Amino acid sequence: MPLFRRRRDRDAGDASTPPTVLYGSLSEARGDLDAAVVLKGDFGGQIYVTAPVAAVEANEVNLDRLLVRLDEIAWSDNEGAGRSMEFVHAPVGSVIPGGMGGAPVDAGVWVHEEFVLHELEEAIAGILAGRSTELPPFPSLPLLNRTYFCGQDPSWSLVFRSDGTVLRADGAIGRWDAAGDDAVLTIDSHGLQAMAAYDMVLIQRPGTALLTEAPIELELVRN
Questions:
Q1: Angstrom distance (rounded) from CA 144 to CA 163
Q2: pTM attached to this predicted model
């Protein structure tokens, strides 16, 4: 299942008119000072990365490797279908159309917020700048020291700690254990379990009030 599951009823063409000039390769696009590289997934339903070609030092092989890795993280259930790398005429300040609002072309590297949430922005920018060729291993789930909110029971907000404990908003302390793609937590005093599965939930960055979609949903199960 994808780490970033989202509704597919979002229009894949909900931004501006698509670019009319496309290039067949990175080398061809370098002849246009206003060309941009665009990495997409889910048949245009999500734009992963945009950057002016002038800011890209990576070769096309490494760009394609990055695209494959981002697609594995975001849309693994598509099994590689629907991902694409495009080189288009798109000056800085323009908008690339796509699902989830499309994506701007900034002076530097633009990365979709879901990869920013998982702290991959710097690594992605490093690959485009030619400083590296591979993303680091994707962090294990759940993300530590972040606050998770359960959609089924808003009174449950949980913080997972590296020592295997989990802290609930009311001060109750339980244990969590990761197993494969899932994690199970138990707070014995309340006789509840929560199974963490890849799906939507709100997550809050430490020290901020920002709530962002994240890949774990806590489903409460009574023993």
A1: 10
A2: 0.65
